[in-house]
Structure prediction request, 450 residues.
Amino acid sequence: MSASRPLPFFGSYFELRRGLLPFFTRCARQSDLSTVRVLGKKMYLVHHPDLIEEILVHRVSEFPKAFQFGHLALALGRGLLTSEGDLWLHERRGVRPALLPDRIAEHIAVMQEEIDRALDALPGGTLDIHQEMRRLSLRIVCRTLLGHDPASFEDVVLEAVSEYVEGFERMLLDPLPTARILPRLVLVRSRRRLLGRMEAILEQHRRCPGQEDLVDWLLQAQAQQPNVVTDRQILDEMFTFLVAGHEPVANALGWTFHLLAEHERVRAKVVAEVESVLGDRRAEAGDLPRLQYLDRVLKESMRLYPPGWASTRTTRRAVRLGDVELPKNANLAVIAYVTQRDPRYFSRPEEFWPERWEPGRGEPRHKSAYLPYLIGPRTCVGKAFSLVESKLILTSVLQRFQLASVPGRRVEPQPSISLRPRGGVLLRLRHRQNRERTVEAPFDSVSIRE
Prediction:
């Protein structure tokens, strides 16, 4: 184990401020379990899949979630993303029925309805595809899991989630206690802005039960255990799914469209597959397993830009991890972004190469080197839902539009709650005509959608 070169007291504070991802990458080159000091506090950065398995799979009870989730709880409450122990287990059991495969399949019609609605409104030209995906994925999660059309408050939600992202990033970049006062206030304010709307949705479900969505399942759990499942817990879960149910999906799609626009060979290959499997019709549940190259494209996008780019843990007591003795209350961070770009586990790790996921390629070279949704019992409960949603959106966009990047435009990652493309993803979109697929016409001059 080795450390970055620290300054007295400040440690790696200024290096961290210059950029989280470059800093973590440099640390990973030094050791599989590196340690850094920031303002007199120590953090352990975990990069090797064997050690990651110890934390997230084999010894989960010894490594509960760390202080960053306490900050996030200011906005989301104590839902699945931030809770621990018996509360987490009880909540996971409560929401799981709403996310079973049969239930997801029943949501596909609503997903496709929202996808068609969103794409019908896209004029082509130059636009921020990430922002469009944020709005679309928000509408999908609200209608399918919360049983509510968010038309009256979707702008408020999108603005509040952006406040979450900016505030959480500021707390990650600047661990000074005084620097966290304003971001913490922003998180609390954002929750207050949405609380009334979430309460209204909850009351609507009480008046009209039987919708069999997430809120309905939580109310059923409350009816069975009224002293255990409180209204506050239901609202916390609704907040969690409102944010975590759309933000990571939108980010993954934004990165995927960015990469497809930049890589013509991959784009042509996946468009040809979509045309071969679907023609001009909508994708159905039975089509998704046949879209194998699309699946590899999405996997590869999430390898380079994982939605769950990092996760923090602490130690309940003094423990040994690898060859290192960790004290009680030690802070650890598992950095998926770094591990998924490690040349020991992925050949050509900085390249966008979906073919690496073909059977027989032998990648990743360690089963736990790929963890965009984490691994172990804390794997994202909405993983299957988000993958189905993402594939439906990808197929529909590729059927309708040609994609091209905007010359000279760089997209940088913004590490926060999830891994956002900072400033969005500007793309040029051109409507396909006359079953135009694998041969793409040149772009004409286009207008910018505000």
